[in-house]
Specification:
Helix content of chain A: 55-70%
Distance between the termini of chain B: 52 Å
Structural class of chain B: mainly alpha
Strand order of the largest sheet of chain B: 2-3
CATH architecture of chain B: Up-down Bundle
Shape of chain A: globular
Largest sheet of chain B: 2 strands, antiparallel
Helix content of chain B: 55-70%
Number of strands of chain A: 5
CATH superfamily of chain B: Cytochrome Bc1 Complex, Chain C
Oligomer: heterodimer
Largest interface: A-B, 93 and 99 residues
Shape of chain B: globular
Number of helices of chain A: 16
Strand order of the largest sheet of chain A: 1-2
Number of domains of chain B: 1
CATH class of chain B: Mainly Alpha
Number of helices of chain B: 11
Chain lengths: 455, 258
């Protein structure tokens, strides 16, 4: 389809050969483990002419399928994603509405994963999903736009991050579910069951040594296989499009779509840091200290996961993989076209108020006005926005204290309660602004460009 | 007939370096933890479940190890790299193409990315096990500062190769400082700091200028970020790491159910 990069297909096929081999090895190891541990008889899927087709044979056949895929890839014909899949994925995710689809889909996935966690923590389910996502990624790697963005050296860590977070979230949830089930039966958490003490030498220092060696080996292999990026020499006149911050700040850069730099780049990141530091002083729940649990600290758990997985990590993934030239949204299989123009008619709340509701023109500050006079005009123009923001931060906290957060308010006292609610309101302001933008094309709730004060 | 190992271990030199016999029996495995400088960070014994990999994920330890890797490879790279407009890019180019052990740059860069990931995972684990709860509240605060400093270390290092990727990432990142309330040239409340009609906060005196040492990313910025990256931030990190580790011990060791 895109024949002008002759090296792409060869490079992707070479990579995929080793990728599928690793997958085959992984599944072969899994079936070997199940067999050795005597776990193969637990579930006989069906009988095949007298031979029990157990889970061991199931994973072994997947392993053999991967060997065949590896052979195909090494032979230069890696299997590709079907055309209808790419077309539909692109159609669903093209243009700036794509950010809506992406955000809603990731949110839905996280909610499903949380709500049905008892299903997803089953090793066989997790292993199946892990294999499925890796196979899907392997198929997608034959698509040039996907390959170019995922295989970019500085983006490799984010792919690793996504899989690592998936694994560790699964592990923590698995342990939490076990502990929560034990708590229902009146048993202590698993971590408490074993009070045995061991000497640090050798039990801990050897583990540390092995970790150090493993990390060193990993770094060396990574460094040999992947060159650190080095682009053209710096030029102050040639602005790349898109210009992106380092990947770990791309969640903040993505917030620039909804907020001005003073909020997205200064106020909100500072509040993230302050909010993280405040957690131990706001969380008065004494349960769940030193062991994995979800049901004993549901509120803290959900708030943290919304902040970390939803508002931090998924925004980074969005900013890295799906934002192209002019920070437009591009689907994972879409060419980054710098000339793609998306018409955005975002309007401020004051414009809606004065133009659409009052049917007059928006009051404007003229250059001959003094500071006081312009302030008056600004107040008259922006009163609705200022009022909404004030209501949000001043009226909501006491309202919540008498309703949903009643217990919190009584237990926390005024200062701690206000700190928590203010932090939560700031956190919630991002999804609120996203929703307002998507629903009403709303740009600013308060727009005072005269004083660089836009919310 | 004593074996060679025994002869070495019984020599005066060996005994003067290691202040204890080989940790082969229970007594000496205790003694080694108390008398060895590098090991005395640890307690003598720990709860078995507290050090289970499935519980700790070893992410704090891995982050510290990566910090050491970054320090060692970073010092070695400093011998070669000159932070000037004239040489910065060329030195990195040479590291890539001709210098022996130029792979140090790859290790340094991937190690930095890995460190950002492992420090997040460490925070994730500490949160999910509720290990920030009393008496460990303050150590969590220290940890959050260390996490922020890890990001800043990576951010300041991002500029040093002085290629397009570097200066535009830093330009995009530092443009935010322009919008700092009151102290930024384009931040809300910027007009508050003025004497009569003279504006105190201009593009040559605001928060962004303080960060860059200039009105745009240039030679002064390279010098500033180089010193922040190689000296200032690592010193603060080393200081806070000492506190972080000391507090782990003082607050009751690796966390576990009460």
């Amino acid at each position: 389809m895109h024949g002008f990069d002759p090296s792409f297909e060869a490079r992707s096929a070479e990579f995929l050969g080793f990728f599928y081999l690793a997958l085959a090895l992984m599944n072969a190891t899994a079936s070997l483990y199940l067999w050795q541990a005597g776990k193969d008889k637990i579930k006989v899927w069906f009988n095949l002419g007298g031979v029990a087709f157990t889970n061991v044979l199931g994973w072994l056949s997947l392993s053999m399928l991967c060997v065949i895929l590896a052979a195909a890839a090494m032979g230069g014909i890696p299997p590709k994603l079907p055309g209808w899949f790419i077309r539909n994925a692109n159609a669903a995710l093209t243009g700036n509405p794509g950010a809506i689809v992406y955000t809603l889909a990731t949110t839905a996935l996280l909610i499903i994963a949380y709500y049905w966690r008892r299903f997803f923590v089953k090793p066989v389910v997790a292993w199946t999903l892990f294999n499925a996502s890796l196979l899907l990624m392997g198929l997608a790697m034959t698509n040039r736009p996907f390959w170019e963005i995922v295989a970019k050296p500085d983006n490799v860590p984010i792919v690793a991050l996504v899989f690592l977070l998936g694994f560790f979230t699964w592990l923590a949830t698995y342990k939490s579910v076990t502990n929560d089930d034990r708590a229902v039966e009146g048993l202590p958490p698993l971590e408490k069951d074993d009070d045995e003490k061991v000497l640090v030498w050798p039990d801990l220092v050897y583990t540390e040594l092995i970790c150090m060696i493993a990390i060193t080996a990993l770094l060396l292999i990574w460094a040999i296989l992947l060159k650190a990026p080095l682009e053209e020499p710096a030029s102050a006149v040639k602005t790349p499009n898109p210009s992106k911050a380092p990947w770990y700040f791309l969640g903040l850069q993505e917030m620039l779509v909804y907020y001005d730099p003073w909020m997205a780049g200064v106020v909100l990141p500072s509040l993230v840091i302050v909010g993280l530091m405040a957690i131990p002083y706001l969380d008065f729940n004494k349960k769940g200290n030193g062991y994995y649990t979800i049901s004993q600290r549901r509120f803290a758990y959900i708030i943290f996961q919304v902040g970390f997985l939803e508002l931090w990590v998924t925004l980074i993934v969005l900013g890295t993989f799906l934002r192209g030239p002019n920070w437009n949204f591009f689907g994972p299989f879409e060419e980054w076209d710098a000339h793609k123009v998306l018409v955005l008619n975002n309007i401020d709340l004051s414009q809606i108020l004065w133009n659409d509701i009052f049917g007059t023109s928006v009051p404007t500050v003229t250059s001959d006005m003094g500071t006081f006079d312009s302030l008056l005009v600004v107040l008259k123009r922006e009163w609705l926005g200022l009022l909404s923001v004030a209501l949000y931060f001043i009226v909501l906290p006491p309202l919540l204290a008498t309703t949903v957060f009643r217990k919190f308010f009584i237990k926390m006292g005024f200062v701690r309660y206000m700190t928590m609610v203010t932090l939560l309101l700031f956190m919630a302001s991002l999804p609120i602004k996203m929703a307002l933008r998507w629903a009403f094309n709303l740009k600013y709730i308060v727009a005072i460009p005269e004083f660089f004060f836009n919310i | 007939m004593a074996s060679l190992g025994e002869i070495i271990r019984n020599s005066q030199i060996w005994k003067s370096v290691f202040r204890h016999p080989a940790p082969l029996d229970r007594r000496n495995r205790v003694v080694v933890m108390l008398t060895n400088f590098f090991l005395h960070l640890h307690p003598v014994s720990v709860k078995k479940q507290g050090i289970a990999l499935s519980y700790t994920w070893c992410m704090g330890g891995v982050t510290f190890f990566l910090f050491l890797v970054e320090t060692i490879t970073g010092v070695l790279l400093m011998f070669y790299y000159r932070p000037t407009l004239e040489w910065a890019y060329h030195d990195i180019l040479d590291l890539r193409d001709v210098t022996s052990l130029g792979i140090l740059r790859e290790i340094h860069r991937w190690g930095a990315h890995a460190m950002v990931i492992t420090v997040w995972l460490h925070m994730y684990r500490v949160f999910l096990t509720g290990s920030y709860k009393p008496p460990r509240e303050f150590n969590w605060v220290v940890g959050v500062i260390l996490l922020l400093l890890t990001l800043l270390l990576s951010f300041t290092g991002y500029l040093l190769p002085w290629d397009q990727l570097a200066i535009w990432a830093i330009t995009v990142g530092s443009n935010m400082a322009r919008a700092t309330p009151i102290l930024g040239n384009e931040g809300p409340g910027q007009q508050l700091l003025s004497i009569g009609s003279i504006d105190m906060i201009t593009n040559a005196s605001d928060a962004r200028f303080a960060l860059l040492g200039a009105r745009f990313v240039g030679e002064e910025t390279l010098n500033r970020f180089y010193i922040l990256h190689c000296i200032a931030i690592p010193l603060v990190v080393a200081f806070l790491l000492a506190i972080h580790f000391w507090r782990v011990r003082k607050d009751g060791g690796i966390s576990g159910p009460l």
